[in-house]
Task: structure prediction
Amino acid sequence: QVQLVESGGGSLQAGGSLRLSCVASGYSYSRYCMGWFRQAPGKEREGVASIDSVGTITYEDSVKGRFTISQDRNKNTLYLQMNSLKPEDTATYYCAADPNLRLWVGRSVGVLAVYAWGQGTLVTVSS
Result:
């Protein structure tokens, strides 16, 4: 059974930093591209960043230079370091796994289009 469990969300003021973590289990972690999506209230879920099995990274334009995606394959754990947070970054952040995840970065995605999702972790940034 595939499980993706996120942690690290919270509330903070603009300009602050957070690190999200996602622990994966129940499948062969190295076979899939991993990534982070976010969904703000009333908006569609969109891809923020992805990293594949060879370390190729893709970012959505609005987070370039502020967010850093990384992974520890020995721990089956994915991270998202978020710096210089803005109120518009407020959303529920989801960890995801899919062979083609990179294609969804910067695009809206339906839930059924991705192999596996975490339960989400809320990030709230106040001005």
Summary: The first strand starts at residue 3 and ends at 7. The radius of gyration is 13 Å. The mean pLDDT is 95. Residues 75 and 94 are 19 Å apart (CA to CA).
